[in-house]
């Protein structure tokens, strides 16, 4: 049984993708535009957003910085004045740098927090009142399997994605009864500018368009959570069940860290 109202026909739907300059956000925006949606794309790179509009005429470029509350609110107001409503918002903005406690960088940890979590709260503040007034719409948050359990090198990134997992679950409790859909996207490794700097092997690495296809399929099924690729995330789901006394030595042995 679907946990959310299934989203299958995108013709004429108004979609706001926050974090659409590259990677998963851009690939998802492209698929939605090809499916007939009115797509607003946001991110920090004005040039990348304008390039998207050049490729998909009729799309709307809304440059913003998710860490700046007023920037998000202004972009939302511009979207509303353009199209009058929003049917789906996907928060896909992200910051990532591998970090370990032996080289602690609190400034970078706070940067992760501001982009990956506080940025989501800024978007939520902007869109939620009108979505509640509409009595329909959908909120989707792109987190990561790094939010499922503690992982090596994820000291700065993992906690912010765990926060998004918890946020989405809490929102579902409150909003499903109000007619709103809430979904959570937990990808494995995807080839994006964020992962390009990794100096370690990334198992089951996929391309952004494959991630976008999985996301749209999940929305069509009415899923709450989407995780992919299953050949990788399925193993991690099993690891989530292990007690700590087994989990820690196993991950150390597998990763060498």
Task: Please explain how this structure is put together.
It is built from eight helices and seven strands, in the order βαβαβαβαβαβαβαα. It has a single domain (14-255), classed as NAD(P)-binding Rossmann-like Domain (Rossmann fold). The model has no long low-confidence stretch (mean pLDDT 94). The protein has 257 residues and is an alpha/beta fold. The chain has a seven-stranded parallel sheet, with helices on both faces. The protein is globular. Helices cover 47% and strands 14% of the residues.
Oligomeric category:
single chain
Sequence of secondary-structure elements: EHEHEHEHEHEHEHH
CATH architecture: 3-Layer(aba) Sandwich
**Tell me, what's the shape?**
globular
> What is the average per-residue confidence, as pLDDT, rounded to a whole number?
94
Query: How many β strands by DSSP?
Result: 7
User: Could you give a short account of the major beta sheet?
Assistant: 7 strands, parallel
N- and C-termini, Cα separation = 41 Å
